[in-house]
Design a protein that fits this description.
By secondary structure, the protein is an alpha+beta fold. Helices cover 51% and strands 16% of the residues. The chain has a three-stranded mixed beta sheet with strand order 1-2-3.
Length: 104
């Protein structure tokens, strides 16, 4: 009679799902694109509906977040609050993904 279950020790190179996904993104060199997509998709949630309604387009290029607005007063106000916006994104994602925010 053979034993079906063997008492083998676990492999020591096990990792969590998050670690595996991060490694996969690094191997395929798509980490920056993934981060850019997360940043742009979270704009409305982090900045709120009133700002999102006046936003035409959001995209990331060269670690800069470009935000196209259709309100000049809002553009001026957000330009004065760049540091706070960068801090909000850094706090949300746990790391510094952006160097600057440009309002166009």
């Amino acid at each position: 009679m053979s034993k079906l279950k063997t008492n083998r020790p676990r492999k020591s190179n096990l990792s969590t799902v998050g670690e595996s996904l991060n490694e996969l993104l690094d191997v395929y060199r798509i980490q920056q694109k993934f981060d850019a997509t997360r940043l742009t998709s979270s704009w409305e949630r982090l900045m709120g509906a009133p700002i999102a309604k006046r936003t035409k387009r959001v995209f990331v290029k060269d670690r800069k977040l470009f935000v196209e607005l259709n309100s000049a007063p809002l553009k001026h106000e957000l330009t004065m609050s760049k540091r706070m916006i960068l801090d909000i994104f850094e706090q949300e994602f746990g790391q510094k993904l952006l160097d600057d925010v440009v309002f166009i």
